[in-house]
Amino acid sequence: MPFYTLFHKCPQPASSPALNPLHHYRPKEYTSLNAFEGTVDTLSQHATALEDLVLNYMAGLDAMSQLQGLRTQIGHLRECLGSDSRVEEIAEDDDEGYAAGKVAEGKAGPSKKRKRSRK
């Protein structure tokens, strides 16, 4: 019974030499070499395209969050604008009512200020 190494995914007898990935996967013929290089180039292009997609997606998320922030700010500004105009209208109404209510028409009387006594 052969003794296996600790690598459970690719068991290999300890008595035989381990495979060198560079020598094992390196193609020996020109046609195989061209196909291998073509496959590596294709994988590289797919990785670049995938990276571009991820970056565009992340930029889109950033743009969406920026737009949401702007919409929130616009909403707050509209609320402030609406409340200020309402406060001004209420203040104008109160000022007119206050001035009209405090004036006593037809009554004149002495001032309520005390005269200073001169010593």
Explain this structure:
The structure is a single chain. This protein has 119 residues and is mainly alpha-helical. 66% of the residues lie in helices and 0% in strands. The chain is built from 2 helices and no strands. It has helices spanning 21-25, 30-102. The chain is rod-shaped.
Defining traits:
119 residues; mainly alpha; rod-shaped; disordered N terminus
Shape call? rod-shaped
- Care to count the β-strands? 0
- DSSP helix fraction: 55-70%
The radius of gyration over CA amounts to: 44 Å
* Global mean pLDDT: 71
In the predicted model, the low-confidence regions spanning at least 5 consecutive residues are 1-8
Approximately how much beta-strand content do the residues carry?
under 5%
Q: In this structure, how is the largest beta sheet organized?
A: none
Structural class: mainly alpha
Total helices: the number is 2
Order of helices and strands: HH
Biased composition (Basic residues): 110-119
Region (Disordered): 92-119
In a few lines, what is going on in this structure?
Residues 110-119 have a biased composition (Basic residues). This protein has 119 residues and is mainly alpha-helical.
List the helices and strands and how they pair.
Layout: H1 21-25, H2 30-102
